[in-house]
Amino acid sequence: MCLVEIPAQLAAELTAHLQDTKSVVKEFVYCLLIRGGDMAPTLYYLPPSPPCRSILLLAKLLDLELDLKVINILEGEQMKPEFVELNPQHCVPTMNDDGLVLWESRAILAYMAAAFGKDDSLYPKDIRIRALVDQRLMFDLGTLYQRMAEYYFPTMFMGAPFDESKKAKLSEALGWFDAILKGRNYAAADQFTIADLTLLVTLSQIDAFGFDLLPYARIKQWYRRCKNYLEPYDYEDINGSQALVLAQMLRSKIEECSCLYAQDRNSTAAQTSSEVVLNASMARHAKNGCYLIFIVGTKEEIVTFRFKIVQLRPHNVDA
Ligand SMILES: N[C@@H](CCC(=O)N[C@@H](CS)C(=O)NCC(=O)O)C(=O)O
Fold first, then answer.
1. Which of the residues are catalytic?
2. Ligand 1, atom 15: nearest CA belongs to which residue?
3. In sequence order, what are the residues at sequence separation of 6 or more whose Cβ sits closer than 8 angstroms to the Cβ of residue 186?
4. Which of 47, 123, 133, 221 is the one with CA 20 to 30 A from 285?
5. Which domain of life is it from (predicted)?
6. Of ligand 1's atoms, which has the minimum distance to the CA of residue 90?
């Protein structure tokens, strides 16, 4: 149970007051005190989701109890009417703190640090430092995380081939982040802030996906420093191991696509450019660009499309 701290003078006044009050009134006052301190914010989340991981890490740092509710987005649970009613954008993490419903992980981080921080070190009140923290939070949201997602997620979720231009965009963003870190131990302030937290979750995911971080010396030092700082706060359990879960999903998808590719190359060789019927899964991958295809039949529905494979592109996998 989370206890409310009552200043000593108020406690003394309350006790004195309760002593000459009837017991029914006493119970009412006790009730109010206990309820006020007992409501842990609810977090709707899924453990491997990177933005959810940042919220869990901050809760650990703040020693804040959360009422955790898993929403399995891989099973479409976020589309259940009661969740959409709460968050029309149906994404996790979503927090409900006594009726204040928030989503967008970086907004949740800012709220949690301001509302539950013992001091302002994680989200400084000094407006010039806070401006830098906010800029880094937005850099992560709109640039670094975004570019990581654009490069890896089409492959991880749909088996699309990697796009080299997206890789170059991610390298560019990492270069900017490396430059931001020039002369700094942490991303925005002299100490660890929520800017480091969200950037760390993104960076650890990029690392787990196998991106080469060697060219980014400052990032590598900062990465080590932040991991050391968070190690006593269940960093590995909450973030490190879950980043590997997504990396494994990516690897499995790559293997699945390579199999499809090999399987199809064989059938093409056997049938030497005769017509083939693609099943639904193959058709989906074909649509995602694994094959150059030539449609020779007419459409009834996707599973009965008839394609003539005229050329197979090398499967573009680099992780
Ligand atoms: N920018 C958001 C991203 C939230 C997001 O895209 N969450 C994903 C899981 S990582 C999700 O809930 N997807 C399911 C959906 O949007 O329906 C944040 O940082 O909170």
1. 49
2. 91
3. 192, 193, 195, 196, 222, 225, 226
4. 47
5. Eukaryota
6. 17
